[in-house]
Design goal:
Layout: H1 16-36, H2 44-47, E1 49-56, H3 62-68, E2 78-81, E3 88-93, H4 103-115, E4 120-128, H5 130-158, H6 161-184, H7 191-221, H8 227-237, H9 239-259, H10 265-284, H11 286-298
Length: 301
Amino acid sequence: MQLIKPGINIDFIGKRKFALIISLVLILVGLASLVRHGGPHYGIDFAGGTLVQVQFERQTSAAEINNALTDLDLGSPVVQRFGDDSNEFLIRVERTTGELQGISVLITETLEQTYGVGQVEVRRVEMVGPQVGRDLRNKGMWAIFYAMLGILAYISWRFEFRFAIGAIIALFHDVVITLGMFSLFAKEIDLPIIAAFLAIIGYSLNDTIIVYDRIRENLGKHNKESFTFILNRSINETLSRTIITSGTTLLVVLSLFVLGGGVIHNFAFAMLVGVLVGTYSSIFVASPLLLLWQKKAVKPA
């Protein structure tokens, strides 16, 4: 299936400086948000504490729930609306499991004093100790690091070292921007999001490998042409495949984001950002980095 006419020649490499500005803006905005918030907003999996999901029979607000919980010794609970149901909320308490035995019963009884008996239903309680949360966070970060290391080794063996460096920088670019968007939109980082980051790395790498494989093929076919010509030709020749693959993936992820509900909302958001940024980076980051490497390599001493 061809969406793009054969022989099209869009000058993607010529727009690399403009693309660099876009990437820098996105990265700096994300980093500024991370600094402003004191780092990523970790979920219960990584930060530790207790998470209680509560559903109410009538309309209420986070402020009203906080006021109802004032008499409980819960420290500073964080209350936020959950998913598409306007009557469902998450109550997060940064305390350990041992200190909060029977917390679901305690919260239910306290809230029923304000909302009435039978008007409050605790639907989920999750408890994670701070040490366990720290261990999970560290293992998640190491999983991403080892994935990058494995990719570096594989592409160096399968292609060349310069291709591997370009791919790793592009993947790092994708993860940093996605992490920045999570901070900007105040979304939590938990275990499913680490899985989303690994999926983003795999998706973006697949896109990059397709372009790299065509570049290597064209290096043999058009060895008398300039390297810029070969890069542009390779991107244009794989453009139809990129649009079809990314377009269909985006439709699925967008459906999950809009219709999937609160449980997978953050995961779908990560994938939505990751697919967009991953497609962009395979064209405007990974390939121009090869040109930069080429120029440095042939630069006279």
